[in-house]
Amino acid sequence: MKLNDFLDHLNRGLPVIGGSEAHLFMHEVSQEALRITAELNSVYHTPEEICSLMSRLTGKPIDESFAMFPPFYTDCGKNITLGKNVFINAGCKFQDQGGITIGDGALIGHNVVMATLNHDPVPEKRGTMHPAPIVIEKNVWIGSSATILPGVTIGEGAIVAAGSVVKRDVAANTIVGGVPAKFIKKIDGSRKENHG
Length: 196
Hints:
Layout: H1 3-11, H2 21-42, H3 47-58, E1 67-68, E2 72-74, E3 80-82, E4 87-88, E5 92-95, E6 100-102, E7 107-108, E8 113-115, E9 117-119, E10 129-131, E11 134-136, E12 141-142, E13 147-148, E14 153-154, E15 159-160, E16 165-166, E17 174-177, E18 182-186
Parallel strand pairs: 1-4, 2-5, 3-6, 4-7, 5-8, 6-11, 7-12, 8-13, 11-14, 12-15, 13-16, 15-17
Antiparallel strand pairs: 9-10, 17-18
Helix pairs in contact: 2-3
């Protein structure tokens, strides 16, 4: 299996059956991601070096406006797409096999978890994984220690309050919070908010 075939399999939402060719390839990809993130997280890097390492990790060019404070963790990396002027704060964990897309101007707080895989609920099939993408649209702010679950889209300009668990789509220009995250209010563009 080649990387493009693997990503196509995931992006079509096909299951990854334990022991299958896709599952074995997933392990190969994870080893490369672990090597690159170990390099990223082990010593100080300039912003330019961080962009270069993230380009290696994702297999795509990263815009020079991207910024991140390591450490950063992923066990794949190849299904992450980052827009311009994205900032990722320290301690984030991206499980991106199902696809994570982050739009221009998004701010990702400390210790945010994005998970794009679910294990099969049937005990005998628990080793099978079901991918679903996460989409973070433009100018979203995700507060510290939030968790975004598979299949969620967070609409443009939305805010996810710190510590939230988001399992459903979030409408544009709204604030959600809690476990599970619920609508709090629409964003009033005339005043500043403080949510994490």
